[in-house]
Each structure stands twice: as C-alpha cells, then as structure tokens.
Automatic annotation (TrEMBL):
Superkingdom, natural source: Bacteria
Subunit structure comment from the entry: Homodimer. Forms a membrane-associated complex with FtsX.
Protein name: Cell division ATP-binding protein FtsE
Principal place of residence: membrane
Record domain ABC transporter: where: 2-216
GO biological process, one term: cell division
A GO term from the CC aspect: plasma membrane
Any GO MF annotation of the entry: ATP binding
Function: Part of the ABC transporter FtsEX involved in cellular division. Important for assembly or stability of the septal ring.
Keywords: Amino-acid transport, ATP-binding, Cell cycle, Cell division, Cell membrane, Membrane, Nucleotide-binding, Translocase, Transport
Length: 217
C-alpha cells in the first residue's frame, strides 16, 4: 500500500515539484501516472522509492512512514520496491547477467539462488540466451527489458516504472505494457508513468493525472 498525505516536495532553490498531494494506491493495484514533462511524475515515483524525501507531509509505503524513517532504515524498505529508471542506469561495463544480479548482490542473496533468479527474470522478459552479452549490443527494446528484469529479480511487492515506453515505437511499447501487466497479475503493485496517455487508455486502469505538481482536472 502506498499513501500520500498532504505531500509537498520542494527541491532546493526550485519551485514545488509536488504540491500538497493526498492519495492512496492499494496493494496489488496497477495505476498510471500521466502528465506533461515537468508535471512531477518522476518526483512522485522518487518519493515512493525513498530516493527523494518529502519536504512536508507523509509518504507511507508498506506501512512504513518514509518521512519519519531514519536514512539507515531506508534500504529495508527499498528491498520491497523495484524501479525501472527513466535513464536506465544500465552498467555497460558488465554483462546482461551481472546487471540483473546487482540487486541480489546488494541484498546479499546466496549465489545459487541468485543465479536461478536471474535466469528466471531474464526468461520472463525474453532475454534468456543473452546473459553474457554486453548491454551495449542490445536494441532499445531489449535494454528496456533488461531494466525490467533487474527491477523484478528480487520479487518486489511494488514495481515503479518511470516512462518505460518513452523512445519505443508503439508495438514495443505495448509489449512492455503487457510485461508490467503480467507482474501485476501475480500480485505486484505497479505504478507506471508516461506523458503519452494513448497507451494507458486501453488498459482501463486508474490514471492519476498531474499538472505542475497537483492533480490535473
Ligand atoms: P516529470 O517526471 O513529470 O517530467 P519531474 O518530477 O521530473 O517531472 O519534475 C517536476 C519539477 O521539478 C520540474 O519543474 C523540474 O524542473 C523540477 N525538478 C526535478 N528534479 C529536480 C532537481 N533534482 N532539482 C531541482 N528541480 C528539480
Ligand atoms: P522465481 O521462481 O525466481 O520467482 P518466476 O518464474 O516465479 O521466478 O517469476 C519470473 C520472474 O518474475 C522473476 O524475476 C520474479 O522475480 C518475477 N516475479 C514473480 N512474482 C513476482 C511478484 N509478485 N512481483 C514481482 N515480480 C515477480
């Protein structure tokens, strides 16, 4: 469960990126986050994942009030969250396999179970057989799948994706959406942002629309 209670985020020396937002996303829900560039979508996702902290108000994730949590406790909350970053954050000096292994290394899984899970995640996104490949050799769509495998390999209860279909043509984008739907179907809470609402329309899910950090009409 994700709950925002009167949340404001002000970046140093900047305007309020999020302005007094209150809403709730239920466990197991799949929701879209829409709005133009600069509307506050990334910031909202970063507040959920604890990458950014609220300036005012409370952000509650899986029963933990992130606004009151000590920084040292944040990693435990993050273990239950998977993030597909807008800028990918792929490490091009290591293989596809090692990129997906990264979150498990951080958590400290044993090697055998980790290897099994990395294979399961790569299988899920259709990249099995490319384990040893350097990510630079993957197509744009494949790189996006790599990011998704890395985001789900630790079986997070919450999966966040920041504009995962940006820069992909429509067929690829729909593929990616189906992939997120499959994680939603096995129980994950899924939040996906996009500035293009046409992709969302087909899914009949709740759409949270933002404009200038507030709910859009
Ligand atoms: P979106 O994801 O919808 O494009 P963002 O959350 O990235 O929106 O940005 C919302 C607003 O916050 C914008 O005005 C942006 O310029 C500002 N902003 C985002 N990140 C930072 C930052 N690190 N420092 C200062 N301002 C920022
Ligand atoms: P595993 O046995 O490793 O869980 P599965 O075949 O069950 O593999 O799942 C394939 C991929 O989907 C794995 O990467 C797994 O982490 C991911 N996955 C399975 N269930 C969930 C879930 N509830 N939330 C997020 N990811 C999941």
């Amino acid at each position: 469960m994700i709950k925002f209670d009167q949340v404001t985020k002000r970046y140093p020396g900047s305007i309020d990126a999020i302005k007094g937002l209150s809403f709730q996303i239920d466990r197991g829900e799949m929701v879209f986050l829409a709005g133009h560039s600069g509307a506050g979508k990334s910031t909202l996702l970063k507040l959920i994942s604890g990458i950014e902290r609220a300036t005012m108000g409370n952000v509650v994730v899986n029963g933990q009030n992130l606004s009151k949590l000590r920084a040292s406790q944040l990693p435990y909350v993050r273990q239950h969250i998977g993030v597909v970053f807008q800028d990918h954050k792929i490490l091009y000096d290591r293989s596809v396999f090692d990129n997906v292994m990264l979150p498990l290394d951080i958590i400290g899984f044993d090697r055998r179970e980790s290897t099994r899970r990395v294979h399961a995640a790569l299988d899920k996104v259709g990249l099995l057989g490319k384990e040893k490949t350097n990510p630079i050799r993957l197509s744009g769509g494949e790189q996006q799948r790599l990011c998704i495998a890395r985001a789900v390999v630790h079986r997070p209860s919450i999966l966040l994706a920041d504009e995962p279909s940006a820069n992909l043509d429509r067929a690829y984008a729909l593929d990616i959406m189906e992939l997120f739907k499959s994680f939603h179907q096995v129980g994950a809470t899924v939040v996906i942002s996009a500035h293009d609402e046409t992709l969302m329309a087909d899914y009949g899910r709740r759409i949270i629309r933002l404009a200038h950090g507030a709910f859009a009409a």
